[in-house]
Design a protein that fits this description.
By secondary structure, the chain is an alpha+beta fold. It is built from seven helices and seven strands. It has a four-stranded antiparallel beta sheet, with helices on one face. Strand 6 and strand 7 form a beta hairpin. Helix 1 packs antiparallel against helix 2.
Length: 189
């Protein structure tokens, strides 16, 4: 079992325990700053405390690549990961959608050191696994190989369409595609 502190940037929200095999949260060990919790969790604690653990698992499920994603299993195979839950856990369950993350219980790492809003990340391997070999090179015309390929906000991209976050000239972009169209969306800071 793994123990994490659910964080809101550098504010500790709660200590939770997660099953190492299923990645389901199995216990809330300590409530710290509930005012900083994701809304679904904060609401459960206030209104339905017996449902809080379920709501923590729901919050986590919304962070992962869903089963309905067009090429989910091919993508996971290409990056040598068995499940979306495992992928989300590869780099603190960080996202470019919010400021929540899972900090290992005795870690001294900070939001400033790891967040994707201000830190670089490498989407090359993930992008190619999603859109085909050399797709990243074709899109960006360069390869950035300084970071681990699983230290990326792509580990937590929900939704049904194929997508990948990329950073070009310091700006975050979400590359999204379906059978009929391709969209490049710039992230707001």
């Amino acid at each position: 079992m793994a123990k994490y502190v659910l964080m809101n940037k550098d504010t500790e929200v709660m200590v939770v325990e997660q099953d190492d095999k299923t990645y389901k949260f199995i216990a809330i060990l300590e409530l710290i700053n509930i005012a900083y919790a994701p809304f679904v969790i904060k609401n459960a604690i206030a209104s339905f405390p017996e449902k809080t653990l379920d709501k923590i698992n729901q919050w986590f499920r919304y962070r992962i690549i869903p089963n309905s994603r067009e090429n989910k299993y091919e993508l996971l195979k290409n990056i040598d990961v068995e499940s979306s839950e495992e992928l989300a856990n590869k780099h603190f369950a960080l996202s470019l959608s919010d400021q929540y993350w899972l900090k290992p219980i005795h870690s001294s790492i900070t939001w400033k050191n790891i967040n994707y809003f201000t830190n670089d990340y490498d989407s090359h391997e993930f992008f190619d696994a999603n859109f085909g070999n050399n797709a990243y090179i074709t899109l960006t015309k360069k390869v950035i190989a300084t970071l681990s390929s699983l230290e990326t906000p792509n580990n937590t991209t929900g939704g049904q369409l194929k997508k990948a976050w990329i950073k070009i000239n310091g700006e975050n972009y979400l590359y999204k595609a379906s059978a009929h169209f391709i969209i490049l969306i710039r992230s707001m800071k």
